[in-house]
Amino acid sequence: MRNSTRGCLGLMLLFSGFMHISCLGEEAAEKNEVSSPEIEKLLLKGKDEDGQKQYKDALSTYKEALLLADKSASTGLWLKIAGRVAKVLDELNDFKQTEALYREILETSEKFHGKEAPETAIALGHLAEILRELRKVEEAESLLRRSLAITEATYGKNDPHVALRLSRLAAVLDRTASAKEVEALLRRALEISEAAYGKNDPKIAIRLDTLALQLIEQKDFFEAELMLQRALKIVEDAYGKDDPKLGNPLGELALLFLSTKRYHEAEPLQRRMLEIFVKDEVKTGQQNKDFRSDLKHYADLLRQMGDTPEQIKEKVDKITEPLRKK
Q1: Is residue 97 situated within a structural domain?
Q2: How many domains does the chain have?
Q3: Is the N or the C terminus of the chain less surrounded, counting Cβ atoms within 10 Å?
Q4: Predicted confidence (pLDDT) per residue in 103-143, tens digit
Q5: pTM of this prediction?
Q6: Interatomic CA distance for residues 284 and 264, integer angstroms
Q7: φ and ψ at 6, to 5 degrees?
Q8: What domain range is 287 assigned to?
């Protein structure tokens, strides 16, 4: 749970598991993928390591594959492998190397696919995300506006690809532009997505969540609450009441209640979110990346509500008890 909303949009787009899958699901099929059995074996090995979050091993494997790929003869294959290397570098928070590689990927994509190609729009977006992390906001904004223009020209102004570009641009402008400008981008992204997927698709929950955060920042708590309640219901209906994907709408709805000092309404939401994370960890063996910080925020909330240290420990222990029984 975050304590303030400024900059939340970028965090949600980059680090929330639910949103991460949605944003990175638009991989472009590369042309001219002349591979070899050795490279394919390395790519499968790297994918397995990546999936198990063994990022250092995956980086070494993908780099080995990249060295075997002929950039001039098999440019599409090189772009594919370089993209995987960059993604793992990003996971390892090596933003400087990630930036350098994404710049090379962009330059190569412009030469191979063309400067106005949709593949180049994707490369522009990836580089912009890293520049945002490095606080090179002006360049990130310029790249994203170019990416948006290419995408609109390629697919039309009401295509779901455009909604994704709008959301990423909003995440960058969240640090520099007016709240109303960011809100307008997010509302347009929501409208496009609703028209494309229907009003109850899980993708809509993502759009509602990010727009609600912006409204919380503007202290429009009434509309924000309606959006978050709607997002919560969409995710519950799609995945069930115990799915970790509920973490976003539950966490942001609790944030809204905290912002308006409705502590007794925030508490059950935070508790439910933590209980879901615990159940998932018992089931999968993987701890949610936000669990420890969210647990601390929950204890802080109980303290604000007047609980004694003993009462706080008892409530926290009750939530984490299934982990001790593993």
Answers
A1: no
A2: 1
A3: C
A4: 999 999 999 999 999 999 999 999 999 999 999 999 999 99
A5: 0.80
A6: 31
A7: -65, 125
A8: 261-326
